[in-house]
Specification:
Layout (H helix, E strand, L loop, with lengths): L1 E6 L21 H17 L2 E6 L3 H14 L3 E3 L16 H7 L18 H18 L5 E6 L1 H11 L17 E6 L4 E8 L7
Parallel strand pairs: 1-4, 2-3, 2-4
Antiparallel strand pairs: 1-5, 5-6
């Protein structure tokens, strides 16, 4: 099977210098254009059987473009929501950094400021990736439209990296990551493809 893991398009929060996370900002007009361009590329190059997405507006709106372009069913999954960043969601970065300073060396099971723990975040990724793989036939392609933080967790789950891995996977607006899964291998075929959005 193939999995297409896709970040949402540009959101209004990207222009405001705030911590987004669970703050529910919609796409900008440019974000909608990016989502349209991504959908055209995906339709041309892949036969998508289902589109899974986060319910947060920026991901949901991106996924609607893709579902409409491919005529694939749209499945909203709460476990694909971005990291629950608690009290800093939607706050201007400068204000949040002063009021809620970074806490280093936090145990993976612990959290601060009403956030979820690293362990809880990774468990969400492990759970939803396992479920999507189990629901996708060997010959099918499932698209997952979500957020940068979630994509990093899905990569770590897919590649079976440890929870405290310091490896970070870059992804731009509507960046596409293509993965293959079969009985013997898990392969990354394409990472952070964004050429469709150039000039948009």
């Amino acid at each position: 099977m193939k999995l297409l893991v896709i970040r949402h398009g540009e959101s209004e929060a990207d222009l405001l210098d705030v911590y987004e996370g669970r703050a529910d900002f919609p796409l900008t007009e440019r974000g909608h254009r990016q989502a349209e361009a991504m959908s055209v590329f995906v339709k041309k190059n892949f036969d998508v059987s289902a589109v899974y997405c986060s319910p947060l507006k920026r991901a949901f709106q991106t996924a609607v473009h893709l579902a409409e372009a491919t005529a694939a069913p749209l499945v909203v999954e709460e476990k694909l929501m971005e990291f629950n960043n608690g009290l800093i969601a939607g706050l201007e970065r400068r204000v949040a950094d002063e009021k809620y300073p970074m806490v280093s060396a936090l145990p993976v099971h612990d959290s601060v400021y009403g956030q979820e723990s690293a362990l809880e975040f990774r468990f969400r990724a492990d759970y939803i990736l396992s479920r999507i793989i189990s629901q996708t036939a060997a010959e099918d392609t499932a698209a997952i439209v979500t957020h940068g933080g979630v994509i990093n967790q899905l990569y770590r789950s897919f590649l079976r990296l440890p929870i405290d891995s310091d490896i970070f996977f870059e992804t731009g607006n509507t960046g596409i990551h293509s993965w293959c899964v079969d009985d013997a291998h898990r392969r990354v075929m394409m990472a952070n493809y964004t050429a469709h959005a150039e000039g948009v």
